[in-house]
Amino acid sequence: MNKFIYTLFIISLLQSCAAVKLKKDIDNVLNKPFYENQITGILVYNPDKNDTIINHNSKKYFTPASTTKIATLYTAMQTIPEQIPALKYAIVNDTLFIQGTGDPTLLHPYFKDSTALNFIKGFKNIAVNLTNFHDDKYGPGWAWEDYDYYYQPERNSLPMYGNIATIYKTSKLNSIPKLFEKDILNINYTKLREEFENTFYYSPAKNDTIQTPFIIDNSLIQNLLSKATNSKISIANNFPDSNVKTVYGVVSDSVYKRMMYKSDNFLAEQLLLVSSATLSDTLSFSKAKENILTTHLADLKQKPRWVDGSGLSRYNLFTPASFVQILTKIYYEQPKERIYSIFPAGGVSGTLKNWYKSEKEPYIYAKSGSLGNNYSLCGYLITNSGKTLIFSFMNNHYLQSTSEVKQHMQAIFENLRDNY
Predict the structure, then answer these.
(1) Which strands make up the sheet holding 173-176, listed edge to edge?
(2) Is cis: bond before 177, omega within 30 of 0?
(3) Where in the chain do CATH 3.40.710.10 domains reside?
């Protein structure tokens, strides 16, 4: 055996021994008392070597919380073009017929996109059709008592202002949209809004801005759109079935990035409706889900129970192995620069800004998911040796603080970073 081959053999042997020790160390951690009263699943995979490094309960189903947004992101990437379809329209005689695509950016305070509005303003006779939304306003299993929480707005075909009323105080009480200013009561109340009507409450002792979802109906959409365009808007019961065209708005990646960084439930839910709108004339979560599960994700080894786009529902069930499969598809299908710009970076951005820090470049790009007594993290880990690992680490039903759970996870991630 010549010297070069012998050196390669020794290096390979040392690497193999190091990998065995790393796996043993992490297995020992997962078998410590800290984890004995919770359900924990972890899968760590090297896609370039097709090598499974850690596999612990990876085929068991977990409540994923907002890591569900990884499946939503993948669906959107496969179905939505580079710019979000903002509006479908058809011109019949002198009337512009418009139909929503589920685009979440119209009058949204962050995106400030006016593409659709500017297009509509060019017409005198405008009719909006709202019959293409074939879903419930809330997802299955959403908490009914959270109806006034900003993170649970209604879903619909033509959202405006993020489907959120923003209320703040100057010399008087103000709202965005302005339409609701007459509906704000300056009194103490346990809720920010009445359950079944757009009556809002702002405590006299408050000086901060509050945000709460508003109730959506056809009349409200008509009024909001009319005020935004300074045009008379009528409601059309039908939509033309020929010569239908599309107006495109913001760059899709800007919406994906906002969804992932802020874990924005509204954007996630609406993106699946936009996906559905690109596939058919119907806006439905089920259509988008079934399409992706029977095409690009048909090979998932454990089919998920997937009921919403955001992960708000505890009815969702995914396995760590399924998330690693989806993340691996993204890894092979998308440029790394795009992936790392969309996923939050540990210690730098989004929901990971205060965790998984590094003295150098970020070593984790991932999506977190958190509900009461549940915390998961799924994404990409870059080791000091330059290798990219794909992981899913899911924790359900623990009684410790989430901060403690994150600390234990971070120790495992750092071990992988430093020793693989």
Answers:
(1) 173-176, 164-169, 210-213
(2) yes
(3) 21-74+277-419
DSSP string, 259-305: HHHHT-HHHHHHHHHHHHHHHSS-B-HHHHHHHHHHTTTTT-SS--B
Q: What is the DSSP string of 81-108?
A: -SEEEEEEEEEETTEEEEE----TTBT-
One-character DSSP codes across 209-231? -EEEE----HHHHHHHHHHHHTS
Mind listing the pLDDT tens digit for each residue in 76-117? 999 999 999 999 999 999 999 999 999 999 999 999 888 999
Phi/psi of residue 210, nearest 5 degrees: -115, 150
Burial class from Cβ neighbours inside 10 Å (0-12, 13-18, 19+) for residue 181 reads middle
* The two structure tokens encoding residue 362: 């970020």
Q: pLDDT of 177-224, one tens digit each?
A: 999 999 999 999 999 999 999 999 999 998 999 999 999 999 999 999
Domain spanning 21-74+277-419, CATH architecture: 3-Layer(aba) Sandwich (3.40)
- For residue 176, count other CB atoms closer than 10 A to its CB: 18
CA–CA gap between residue 408 and residue 222 (Å, rounded):
52
Task: Indicate whether 28 pLDDT > 90.
Answer: no
Stated length of the chain: 420
**Could you report the per-residue pLDDT of 140-154, keeping only the tens digit for each?**
999 999 999 999 999
Query: Among positive and negative, which fits the CA dihedral 52, 54, 56, 59?
Result: negative
Rounded CA-CA distance 360/358 in Å is 5
